[in-house]
Amino acid sequence: MNKFLSYFTLLALIFLEVYCGVRLLTAPAEFSVSLVTIFGIIMLIIGIISILRSLQVKTDSRNLMPYRVGLFGGLLDLIIGILCIVFREKIVALLPGMMILVGIIMVIAGIQKIRNYLFLKDHGIHRPWLVVLSAVLTIVLGVIVLLNPFTATATAWTYGGYFLIIEGVVDLFVLIFSIFL
Fold first, then answer.
1. How far is it, in rounded angstroms, from Cα 121 to Cα 124?
2. In whole angstroms, what is the distance from residue 154 CA to residue 29 CA?
3. Can you give the residue range of the structural domain that contains 69?
4. How many domains does the chain have?
5. How many Å apart are CA 177 and CA 179, to the nearest integer?
6. Where are the alpha helices (DSSP H) in the chain?
7. Residue 43 · residue 77 · CB < 8 Å
8. I want to staple 28 with a disulfide (CB 3.0 to 4.6 A). Which of 19, 71, 157, 181 is the partner?
C-alpha cells in the first residue's frame, strides 16, 4: 500500500508538471494570475499559522523577541497574501518590469565575473577562458533582456512550459522503468 501511495504521488506530480507546462503554453496570462493567487493564499495560510504560533510562545518580560518576530512575520505574510490576491492582475502586469531588474542583475553579474577573473589573474591564479566567455554571455543576455523585457517574459514562459512538459514526460518514463524493470 505504501509503494502504491508513493507511485500515485509521483503520478500526480507528473500530471501537475505537464498540466502547468500546457497551461503556460496555451494561456500564460491566465496561468500567471492563477499562480499569483495561489501564492497569495499560501502566504495567508503561513501568516495565520505564524501569528497563532507567536501567540502560543511563552515569554517573560525580559525576552519578547520570539513573540515579536513571529507576530511581525505573520502580519507581513498576511499583508503580502492579501495584496497578491487583491492585486493579482497588476502584479502579473509588473512581470516585464521585473524582467528589467533581471536584466540589470545579469549585466552586473557578468561585470562581477570579469572583475573576479582579472583579480585572480593578477594574483597568479589562472582561470580558464570559459569564465570570461560565461561573463560576456551573461552581459549580452542581460542587455537583450533590458532592450526587450516583454519578449523576454513571453520567452521565459514559453520555455518554462516546454521544460515542464519535457520534465513530466521524462519523469513518467523514469517511473515506468522503475516499476517494471
1. 5
2. 10
3. 1-93
4. 1
5. 5
6. 2-26, 28-56, 65-86, 88-93, 95-122, 129-147, 149-180
7. yes
8. 157
**Could you give the CA distance from residue 78 to residue 91 in angstroms, rounded to a whole number?**
16
Reading the chain (181 residues) residue by residue, the pLDDT tens digits are: 577 777 787 788 888 889 988 998 898 888 889 989 999 999 999 999 988 888 876 655 555 555 667 788 889 999 999 999 999 999 988 888 778 888 898 899 989 888 878 877 777 766 666 778 888 988 998 898 888 888 888 888 888 889 889 988 888 888 787 777 7
Is 76 within 8 Å of 129 (Cβ atoms)?
Answer: no
Q: Which residues pair with 63 in a beta bridge?
A: 60
Asked if the structure places residue 148 within a domain, the reply is no
Give domain status of residue 82, yes or no.
yes
**What are the backbone angles phi and psi of residue 148, rounded to the nearest 5°?**
-145, 75
Whether residue 87 is contained in a domain is answered as: yes
Q: What are the beta bridge partners of residue 60?
A: 63
Amino acid (one-letter) located at 20 = C
Is 11 a domain residue?
yes
CB neighbour list of residue 58: distance below 8 Å, 6 or more residues apart: none
Nearest to 8 by CA among 125, 175, 178: 175
